[in-house]
Amino acid sequence: MVQRAMEQATGPLSGLRVIDLTINVLGPVATQILGDMGADVIKVEPPNGDQNRQNGPGRNPGMSVFYLVMNRNKRSIVLDLKKAECMEALLKLVETADVIVHSMRPSAAERLGICYEKIRARNPKIIYAFAPGYRGDGPYKDMPAFDDVIQGESGLAAINRDRDGHPRYFPTVIVDKFCGYVLASSISMALLHRERTGEGQQVLVPMLETMLQFNLFEHLWEGALGKSDGLGYTRMFSPHRRPYATLDGHVCLLAVNDEQWRRVLTAIGRPELLDDPRFCRMTERMRHINELYGILGDIIATQTSAYWEKAFADADVPHGQVRELHELMDDNYLQETGFFQKVEHPTEGDLVMTSIPVQFSASPGNVRYLPPNLGEHNDEVLGEIGYSPEQIDKLCAPRTPAAAAPAPSPGAAKDTAVESAAQPRS
Questions:
Q1: Rounded to 5 degrees, what are φ and ψ at 36?
Q2: Angstrom distance (rounded) from CA 112 to CA 272
Q3: How many CB atoms are located within 10 Å of the residue 233 CB?
Q4: Which of 35, 82, 65 is nearest to 420 (CA)?
Q5: N or C terminus: which one in the chain shows less Cβ crowding within 10 Å?
Q6: Alpha-carbon distance 12 to 291, whole Å?
Q7: Rounded CA gap, 54 and 1, in Å?
Q8: Residue 398: its pLDDT value, please?
Q9: Which superfamily does CATH assign the domain made up of 248-321 to?
């Protein structure tokens, strides 16, 4: 069943076309953001499809939950890029596109024939974007990298040590998702530059350097003064910096200036601490943050979460309750604002999707395509660039249900074009 757009694009990127050769998480997150903002995203898949089609439960082969949550607002076509005629079809699409995004290392893109120079030869104004592990002008430019690797190399795993002191990964693919957001925003900036100058360009978002900057905004600390042993924002490492236990749950609370601390200490019934030399000014509070957090924790533990919810709301200080994952879909606020939306997919039945979080007053994003089946839009997309039905039948590789071909293990990333136009990044 061909899934037609449910409505016209309304977002700020309406009218732009994106060729999406990405797989895993980073690239699909970036291209879904572009699609949510109105871009026509054409997801070019190999005959076996994006390997994420197999990751997690699902109602039908090749339509797993991991794929479904990051591939809306895209149209899927199947091209076996090992074949010259399929590569030529891709390049014809490039001629109609504003952006091309891939998940390859530079050497793989070169071998495949879709490096920037060759793509630019077909479309000088195109934005050519990718997010390898490392900078393109350094010695690691062709090393493979995944989320866990970059969590380690950027210092994130080290600052997230467990109680025994062992480095620990964050229980989310924080690198892939954050770099995906940076990739999407960087592409948008390049499009703005092109709008002003007419000039296309290459956009490279290195995962390691992006996450180093992310981590070191606060943790460079005394390193900004040239002290290599002075990295680490003190407050982040207090053993008391965690959600505060109440009689029946946990609450979160943060004050960042003198006025907010005055309100917090008054709300907990300890206004006299405002005159304590340890806590009266920000510099002193930072030196004695463990003691201050400890006092807060002891007092908050004496009342219920509801009690503190009202007390902190009355005091107008930033606060909230700790919610488990299973509680989120029933959260009153999220239900009231429509964050979770139920949609009916033509082949997958009822699905729950998150809404588009960014709000534009004049050009809001919208959901026009639900996550597509493999090759669902072959006829539609290739017909738009002049291929006849007979040519499309010959051109498009037979569609193989994704479940029939085991996904490569995360540690065995290959550099071949056929596994989603060459692979190796998350």
A1: -60, -30
A2: 69
A3: 15
A4: 82
A5: N
A6: 49
A7: 21
A8: 54
A9: formyl-coa transferase, domain 3 (3.30.1540.10)
Tokens describing residue 426: 């998350």
Grouping H, G, I as helix, E, B as strand and the rest as coil, residue 376 is coil
Burial of 239 (0-12, 13-18, 19+ CB in 10 A): exposed
Q: Which two tokens stand for residue 76?
A: 């899927």
Determine the distance from the C-alpha atom of residue 335 to the mean position of all C-alpha atoms in its chain, rounded to a whole number.
Answer: 23
pTM of the model: 0.90
Alpha carbon 344 to its chain's center: 24
Question: What mean pLDDT is predicted for residues 61-73?
Answer: 96
Q: What span, in angstroms and rounded, lies between the C-alpha atoms of 133 and 365? A: 30
Confidence class of residue 234 from pLDDT cuts 50, 70 and 90? confident
Quickly count: other Cβ atoms within 10 Å of residue 256's Cβ: 11
CATH homologous superfamily for 17-216+354-412? Crotonobetainyl-coa:carnitine coa-transferase; domain 1 (3.40.50.10540)
What pLDDT band is residue 402 in, cutting at 50, 70 and 90? very low
For the four alpha carbons of 318, 319, 324 and 326, in that order, the dihedral sign comes to: negative
Amino acid identity at 169: Y
